[in-house]
Amino acid sequence: MITEELPPKIQNAYWFQAFNAVSWQLCLGSPLILFANALGAPAVVLGLLAGLAPLTSVLQLVVAPSAERIGYRNLMVRGWSARVATLIFLTLLPIAALWLPATVSIALLVLIMTAFTTLRGIATCAWLPWITAIVPRPVRGFYLSRDRTYVSFASVAALALAGIVLLSDAGLAEYAIVFGISFLGGATSLYFLNRIPVPVVESSEQRPSVKLPWLSLLGDGPFTSLLIFSATAQVFVLSTSAFVTVFVRDQVGISAGAILWLIAGASLLGVLSLRLMRDRIDRLGSRPFLGLVFLWWVIYFGLWWLMAANLVTNAWLVAPLLLLAAGFFAAIYDISLTRLLMNTVGERPGMTQYFAFQSVIVSLLAGISPIMWGYLLDSLDNFELTIGGITLDGYAPLLGYNGCCSQLF
């Protein structure tokens, strides 16, 4: 059995990821933005809150060279414990906001989330190297499939629970319950984090401490190729999801509530794709599945472009199907890329720096790219072009360009 090759007690890693997903879905996701909006925060603050996590990921570059010396487990446990502790203040803030001036509440929210994401940015560089060190190469795809399945189910459950709590829209106090659930999820995740197996190298008296010049990593051909690929995919494909959602609401006419249900359904389809890949990706490799995803991206953006050009008569049916299918293929892309990265740099000296470098570059692009595409879309707000009886609006150049870029992979 393939599961016999996984380290003992690896199920603690699955449960850590599940409860951690409950925590961050509620404290970094849409409930946080809704709470800030309820406080009267301006759009610039909403953007800041949304961008704090990817921006503070830069801190990985500071800690990564010393992560092996400190110890992956030690760094994660200390960082995550401090991170969870900040959620106590976030849980109390909605209650305090009933008496505090709005400007003070907003300032405290930004301060708390800055501390939270800073601690996350410092500690998170140890997670993937830790898992790479304890999971054997032949079963990493199998492990990642189960890992992402736990995360997907936990995320759907957390968002559904938050939706129930906030359903009545009674006021700020309800957010204390949501953030309290986030704190409990984070605290429970620490229980399982402490029970994840320790890498053999951390059990020995001599820990390797390799510090490489950051620019020297770009001289590693396979890693640089993978970095360019993942960065390009982030800019031209993954960063456009928010604008696809806006297009579905404004141009196709599907309600916001229905879109949220479709996103939840997409996550469940992602679980299905993970199950289908569990016994295949380690046998076939990541590249065939990435090729399948590329083909999907061409079809995906091609159909969105046809809808933007008003060439699809049943957009109300096609758009939901595309949103659902996107979850299926997004899960394939995520597990394939992560496995390929682990197998590319997992045995290199200073592997923590490789993981941190890739994570920082992609995270920064995840924060910057939506701003770039948003500016482009605002610039094309009044754009309308008629060619041969086909009327194109501002979404058509955006979706068409991304469709063309997806073919370059």
Beta fraction: under 5%
What's the tally of helices?
18
Low-pLDDT regions: 203-207, 403-408
User: What spatial order of strands do you see in the largest sheet?
Assistant: 1-2
> What is the count of distinct domains?
2
Gross morphology: globular
| Number of distinct beta strands | 2
CATH fold type of the largest domain:
Growth Hormone, Chain: A
Fraction of residues in helix: over 70%
End-to-end Cα distance, whole Å, is 36 Å
Q: Mind telling me which CATH architecture of the largest domain this is?
A: Up-down Bundle
Helix/strand structural class: mainly alpha
In round numbers, the mean pLDDT is: 83
Order of helices and strands: HHHHHHHHHHHHHHHHHEEH
Biggest pleated sheet: 2 strands, antiparallel
Q: What Rg, in angstroms, do the CA atoms define?
A: 22 Å
CATH class placement of the largest domain? Mainly Alpha
Notes on the protein architecture:
- The chain is globular and about 50 Å long.
- It is mainly α and 409 residues long.
- The two termini are 36 Å apart.
- It has 2 domains: 10-198, Up-down Bundle (Growth Hormone, Chain: A), CATH 1.20.1250; 220-409, Up-down Bundle (Growth Hormone, Chain: A), CATH 1.20.1250.
- α3 (43-56) runs parallel beside α6 and α11 packs parallel to α17 (351-379).
- The model is unreliable at 203-207 and 403-408 (pLDDT under 50).
- It is built from 18 helices and 2 strands.
- It has helices at residues 11-27, 30-38, 43-56, 60-70, 72-96, 102-123, 127-134, 140-165, 173-193, 200-203, 221-236, 241-252, 256-277, 281-284, 286-308, 315-345, 351-379, 395-407, and strands at residues 385-387, 390-392.
- Strands 1-2 form a two-stranded antiparallel sheet.
